[in-house]
Design brief:
Blueprint (H helix, E strand, L loop, with lengths): L1 E8 L5 H14 L3 E8 L10 H17 L6 E11 L2 H13 L4 E6 L7 H6 L4 E2 L7 H19 L7
Parallel strand pairs: 1-2, 1-4, 3-4, 3-5
Helix pairs in contact: 1-5, 3-5
């Protein structure tokens, strides 16, 4: 069975977001084993300098990199990544599965994004658009799109 790891900075704080994640995790159980690993979010003082932001991203990045299993195919979620339609995203995952990639890691950064080291470790930088989403909401959107991708692969009625 395919294994999907989601490494996310910060914890879900809102019940409605947590409930939505639980629902998509339940649905995804038919297609893959999915685990979520939460990384501690570093807090910045009011109006941090660019140097302070880089330090935070590097600290979070070190934690993220330590959670990536060897041999996993890594999707860092970043605004400068490639935008794919749901169908293209499904085909990308399916292609990588056919190339013997049985473990995927999707990375959701914190408030300041991802460090260059994390982006460099990625195999495919992925973006869900130029809009900025709170990283907690991004987790729900990502889980839904992964579920949709598997639904497309399996000709489910979910994706119309």
């Amino acid at each position: 069975m395919i294994k999907i790891n989601i490494v996310a900075v910060g914890k879900l704080k809102e019940k409605y977001l947590s409930d939505a994640c639980k629902e998509y995790l339940k649905r995804l159980g038919a297609f893959a084993k999915v685990e979520i690993c939460e990384i501690s979010e570093y807090r910045a003082k009011e109006n941090p300098s660019p140097a302070e932001i880089e330090i935070i991203k590097e600290k979070e990045g070190e934690q993220i990199l330590s959670k990536i299993p060897k041999g996993a195919y890594v999707f860092p979620m970043c605004i400068e990544g490639k935008e794919l339609s749901s169908e293209e995203f499904s085909k990308k995952i399916e292609k990588e599965m056919l190339l013997s990639n049985a473990e995927f890691v999707f990375i959701i950064g914190g408030s300041f994004g991802l460090s260059e080291a994390v982006k460099s470790r990625g195999d495919f930088r992925l973006s869900f658009g130029k809009i900025t989403l709170p990283h907690q909401l991004m987790r729900v959107v990502l889980l839904e799109q992964i579920y949709r991708a598997f639904s497309i692969m399996n000709n489910s009625k979910y994706h119309k």
